[in-house]
Specification:
With 426 residues, this protein is an all-alpha fold. The chain is 59% helix and 2% strand. The structure holds N-hydroxyamidocarboxymethyldethia coenzyme *A (HAX).
Amino acid sequence: MASIRDAFKSKIPSLREDVERLVAEHGDKVIAEATVAQAYGGMRGLRCMVCDTSLVKPDKGLILRGTPLSELTHLSPEDEFYLLLTGDIPDKAASKELGDELASRSHVPDYVFDVIRAVPKTSHPMAMLSMAVLALEEGSKFRAAYNEGVRKEEYWESVLDDSLDLIAKLPTVAAAVYRVRYDLGDLIPRDPNLDWSANFTHMMGVPDTTGTLGELTRLYLMIHADHEGGNVSANLCHTAGSALSDSYYSVAAGLCGLAGPLHGLANQECLRFHLQIMEKFGGVPSKDQLKEYAWEILNSGRVIPGFGHAVLRETDPRYTALHEFAMKACPDAELFKLANTMYEVIPGVLTEHGKAKNVNPNVDALSGVLLYEYGIKQPRFYTAIFGVSRALGMLAQLVVNRAMKTPITRPKSVSTAWIKEQVGAK
Ligand code: HAX
């Protein structure tokens, strides 16, 4: 099979032709109407952007290039990137070529580590990671090509270069954030014998006491990579990229959105919630105790972390993938037992509460539990691990958009006075 670059390049002419014909022949057909509630409500459900890398179906969850996540959880994150970009799963040779290419691009200049060391240790790891990504921008090949007047049709090539560079360097950069932020000693160099994801936890210095850490890292980084185009991180990356900001600026924008508690930071909050429960009850509570505590949380106006979703209406298949892993890797872990008790109790409580449209667990109900069980005991770092993974999806979408010559994003905002006039409200 072809290299990721050649495979993607071969698809571009038909992709462009397809969309050009679609717009020429059906450009004035209506696919969505916006309601007043959507204009004020985060544009929820408004079909007004395109993403071909993945789709989230309310009843099925994540579908990557037409295939449900549950059928793809064996993939390495690198192979997933190949799939997201080209629509094909690479064969062994193409997979090895991509792994070798990432390894060859993985060097991180020393000044980036100086940036990480320069900020106070009280900084959030997501702030440190975003700053380090921006520091890498100095090497942007797209910016250099743009300044030299590269043609619009060819933008995608240097954007792909930047994207491969950034993906290659991210584990090293994030691992440095981890070791510096938590005073864990010297930085640990890459191991040339390990792949992209295994290198990440290796450079973090996480001890592999069970021989399954590599498998968890691979699975974690695989399932968090892409979740269609409208989520906050992908949407921010897309919008920055539409102004022709390069991969570094665009991913940094996405990471800043991922850092919010209603998005990527939920994994940190969820683990903290689990730890609070363990401390309060001195271990895993009974179902009755947990039910009572859940009502206490809801009655005080707080949410139960790890449950519900803006789009999904069934159990998140990413949760299911992590659950299957935990059943094999750590079935007797106390935190996993707590997560299972929550799975039995919380949907019933939320149903009785009557507000949440989805009462089932999402990926964050288990992701932090597993990281903690495997020795990563700093919940504030969890979103940074998510960020390393999400960069794959953000960058695949970015490269596709540059190849498709997607124009700058510029929806029309309206004022409240205009809306009132439009609907005849006082
Ligand atoms: N606990 C309590 N109340 C909840 C709830 C939960 N887990 N999930 C939803 N609700 C409430 C909402 O707060 C909302 O209440 P108000 O009407 O008072 O505002 C109501 O139910 C309707 O919300 P919804 O339409 O079902 O859900 P939203 O699209 O508004 O929000 C959230 C989706 C994920 C933010 C929400 O379910 C939530 O806060 N869950 C807990 C936090 C969490 O687990 N976040 C991680 C999501 C996974 C992810 O994307 N990670 O990146």
